[in-house]
Every structure is written in structure tokens, then in C-alpha cells.
Amino acid sequence: MSNFVWCHGPSCHKSHTQDRIRGVKGSKVLRTKKIKQVNTEHVNFYNYFCSQGCYNDFAHKYVREVIAIAPRTEALETPINVTKEQATGWSGHTYMETKITTVDNNGG
Ligand SMILES: [Zn+2]
Which residues, 6+ apart, have CB-to-CB distance to 57 below 8 Å? Predict the structure, then answer.
């Protein structure tokens, strides 16, 4: 028994590629691509979409539903330290470089 899912791209079956053609002469169709499920331990979007284009089509069509899964109602912040350090460029000239380092509030 084969383990596969159909591509979730809403327009996958409209792409004019030879590997989507199915059926016999006179009643041919373009069919949604099958995606073989090989690595189900490390699932990513390629388990559900045949291409970046199909993923983008899905994301654009269902963006409101996707955002509703984890809505961002306020800005997130990362504590940092900002320092200026003198650095040397490729031609030997010196300049001031802004360094940003993350402050670890949990580990001490
Ligand atoms: Zn697809």
C-alpha cells in the first residue's frame, strides 16, 4: 500500500506539465500531483505541497485561516545589548561597528 497525499495547492491541477496528464485519448485531464510520504518523522511543507509555487498559492488563498491558528496581537521583544567596536575593513581602514548581542535572562 502506497503512502501518499495529494498536493494541497489550490491550482495544482491547472499547471500545464506532462507529469499531471492522466486519462486516455479523448478524455485526458490534468490531475493534482501525488506526494509520496517518505520522511514522516521530520514533516515540513514539502510533505503536503509538490512545489514552492503550490505552497505559495495555498498560503495566499488561506492566509486568514492560517493566521487565526496563532494570531499576533502584540509585538514581541528580544532583550539585547548594543555596543560599538572598532573594526578593520578589507582594505585596512578602520570603522565603528555596531554589535548587537542577545541578553540571556533565563540562564543568568
Ligand atoms: Zn502541487
Answer: 9, 10, 11, 12
- DSSP assignment of 4-21, as one string? EEE---TTGGGS--GGGE
Write the pLDDT tens digit of every residue in 9-61.
999 999 999 999 999 999 999 999 999 998 778 889 999 999 999 999 999 99
Which residues make beta-bridge pairs with 81? Answer: 101
CA pair distance 35, 49, nearest whole angstrom: 7
The Å distance, Cα 89 to ligand 1 centre, comes to: 47
Distance 33 CA to ligand 1 centre (A): 6
Q: Tell me, yes or no, if the pTM score tops 0.85.
A: no
